[in-house]
UniProtKB/TrEMBL annotation:
PANTHER family: PROTEIN GLCG, SLR1406 PROTEIN. This is Heme-binding protein. It comes from the Bacteria. Pfam families: HbpS-like (PF03928). Coiled coil: none annotated. It comes from Pseudonocardia broussonetiae.
Amino acid sequence: MSAPTQNLTRGVVTLSHDGAEKLIGATVAAAREAGLPVSVAVHDSAANLLAFLRMDGAPELTIGIAQDKSYTAAAFGAPTHQLHEVIKDDEPLRLGFVHTPRVVTFGGGFPLVSEGLLVGGIGVSGGHYSQDVAVVEAALKATGFTA
């Protein structure tokens, strides 16, 4: 790399397709154990969809919700349920934030962190958001990601 551009670029670490598939498998296993058909989406560190699965019996509406939860977690680097805490007492932010396309402020989306780096996001939809959170937390634990 030439000296003039040496400090103008950076390397990016992101989730691999194999990593996304392992997360999907762990999520399906956790959802089956909970008796909850879900949709699960995984985004890479640039918030681009990397993998998706809709379990048999998961409502069609869960497709977009799971993808939006995963997108939000990857784009903000924060669990979606924490975003509600950030905006709930700030009326201008609360009223405006929810009109941002694809942003979700209820549980079920988590950032994926590996060795301290944001590598993507995962989102689950199929039950009450508290059930979605429990399914994701079990999948993260099974795959070694932090929740």
